[in-house]
Specification:
491 residues; four-stranded mixed beta sheet; 15 strands; alpha/beta; globular
Length: 491
Amino acid sequence: MKKKISVLLTLIMLGGALAGCGGGQIASSGEDPNTVPEDTYEINWYMQGMPQEDVASVEAAVNDYLKDKINVTLKMHRLELSQYSKQLSTMIAAGEYFDIAWTTPGVLDYTSNAKNGAWLALDDYIDTYIPQTVSELGEIADNARVDGTLYALPVMKEMADSRGWTYRKDIADKYNIDMDSIKTFEDLEPVLKTVQANEPDMQYPIDWGSDRTPEALMKYETVAGTAVIFYDNEKYDGKVVNLVETPEYLEACKWANKLYNEGLVKRDVMTATDFEQRLKDGKTFCYVDFLKPGKAKETSANFNFELEQSTVSDIWQDNGAGTGSMLAVSRTTKNPERVLRFIEMLYTDSELSNLINYGIEGKHYTKIDENTISIPDNTPYTLQGFQWMQGNVFLNYLTEGEAPDKVEKLKKFNSDAKKPMDYGFKFDKTPVEMEIAAVRTVMSEYRKQVIMGSMDPEPIMKDYNDKLKAAGIDKIIAEAQSQYDEFLANK
């Protein structure tokens, strides 16, 4: 009997060892990824975006599709932006159950929640449950690691950006404006004045929200607060700098103020919150944008006029490429294996991806051809415009008017992207968390004052910087520089 028990214990220990290995061995609880489980599991997925009227019929169709494949049912919880951030943060703090959440900096931060134990660590599950997804993501998945561990999967989409102009094509054609030749605000200013003089209904020849001011043409990566690393300016190579102390930042803020004073920008731009609606209403000619192939056509798909785009900068893939839009599995999930099997399908199964994004053919959209659909304005369900928040956009149908080679262009866009010197650098904020919190408080008071244009930035900048220094920005920069130097030395 003792010999039998000994053999049994050995087998159990061996099985445990295999569960932790790669090479396709079954991980964790051991659910076989090649069989359909007998028990049904409900996946609760939290999404950011407008709730959809007919989500119930889409969920039913998804459940029917998945029944004989992995036997799950899906519950999609869509919450508007402010509600999403607040509710998910509360649920995480309380340790409440959910399965999947969308995570992005500024809304539901991936890195801090990973460090705080909110997300399921995925490495032990990769070989068995999400091998194809991680393989296709490649180095983007590695770039999303926190302290060497992967806690969420980047959405498969464009993984880079270039900066430039999005503008009204009809107005550019009418006045023979070659936007491709315009690379600076100095070049742009006379064009804006031409529009202002000849198009009285176009109230804001240039327009912006807080993320599309002249500052947006600057290319840097935020480390913490106003501590940044530039990736297109050799003057700052190898350095972590205080953005507010750079002449480039002051120049961008001065341009915002100049354009504002010339009446080219909405007078209450500092407090206005309807940027997208102003654009849709046709009141502006152009704005600074973060570009990808087809971005302008996507934006104006439901407008009464066509937008076009023109690039100013090179294409860059920075450290935000992997973490800008991700799907994380909660550590409170009751069945991580089944959830990850679902995610693997979401990233690799075009039928499932299109069902979730566009709903049911004939009810929520109609097919124009094998790969192109038309979505009626009054459809009761569509995630059009939100595809970049879930799964793999390369699997999705094209919508009417999009270029047939859109996917190929997006993939080439990714492959053509430059990588900055700090690519792969992850700043450990732990030693300066108090200073970062204090700096953020200062930024909330001063940042919009200097970038939005309604005030002269120069006299404000000194007070802004003095307050940043009192809050500890120099300590943050010194700590970041030390870590960055070590990163570069070992790169």
